[in-house]
Amino acid sequence: MARLSPEDRATKQRVPLLTSVVRRLRTRRAPVLPHEGPIGAEPKLGGRSGALRAAIFGANDGLVSNLSLIMGVAGAGVSNKLLILAGVAGLLAGAFSMAAGEYISVRVQREVFERLIHLEAHEIGSDAELERKELTELYERKGISPDLAARLSEELMRDPKLALETHAREELGLDPEGGLGSPWAAAGSSFTTFSVGAIVPLVPFWFASGSPAVIGSALLSLAALFGVGGGMSYLTGRNLVVSGLRMMLIGAAAAAITYGVGSLLNVGTGL
User: Fold this and answer.
1) pTM score, two decimals?
2) Domain contains 93
């Protein structure tokens, strides 16, 4: 402990809190037990950099937020030119905000995880025997017999790298080899998919105006939302129609509310 920096000592005091948060974030809501029978299509898993999650959120947010913005402005009775300006501004503001938010959140998460792994490495190097006993106790709590738990922990502790990986997974709930996340990948995918999603509601207004453009924007956006929701079923293994309808109905509700608010305001600038 004496060789730790003041910052590391402060972090070490918060390790139980930090690890409990990590485990809570990574734990399923309902336990899954071994069972027989069909499971349907096997879910397709993406990378662990955070880019897949950011891409899905980005596409959904781009569609819903810009559709809602455009419907709200359209409901207020403004001109086509002002509506397109608002849509482009919403696209740029949202894309940069999403990218910045994803970068910061994944960067901070990665720094916390790296600090926890650094402290674990220090503990293994400083008192390997104590860490071996902790690993034995962890396995015993999982239901492994004391003798086998002791042999497993002793064998794993022979290799410092394997010992660190095992402690990170079993004690901290982390994957030091690939589960820390890439902030740049998350930011880039979020920016790209948000931009693509936010363009969809704007397209009809480049070719038409008034009610036809509003109806076209709504229909095109709802179809895109259904497609994104249905595409998520490829990853989750859920029913395609149910996933698509769920996302489409959420987007429709948001757009209808903002259109109603815009209609109540009805500024009608004519710009």
Assistant:
1) 0.73
2) yes
Q: Does any domain span residue 39?
A: no
Residue 74's H or E segment, with its range, is helix 51-75
pLDDT at position 91: 95
Joined tokens for residue 100: 């910045």
For residue 205, is pLDDT > 70?
yes
Within-domain flag for 6: no
Q: Which of 207, 239, 204 is nearest to 224 (CA)?
A: 204
pLDDT at 90 exceeding the cut of 90: yes
Write the pLDDT tens digit of every residue in 210-262. Answer: 889 999 999 999 999 999 888 887 777 788 899 899 989 999 999 999 988 88
Q: Name the 3-class secondary structure at 44.
A: coil
Q: Does 215 map to a domain?
A: yes
Each residue's pLDDT tens digit, 251-268 = 999 999 998 888 887 765
| Contact call for residues 52 and 236 (beta carbons, < 8 A) | no
Domain count along the chain: 1
Question: Distance between CA 51 and CA 193 in Å, rounded?
Answer: 11
Residue 26 near residue 18 (C-beta atoms within 8 A) = no
Q: Could you tell me the residue range of the domain that residue 252 belongs to? A: 49-263
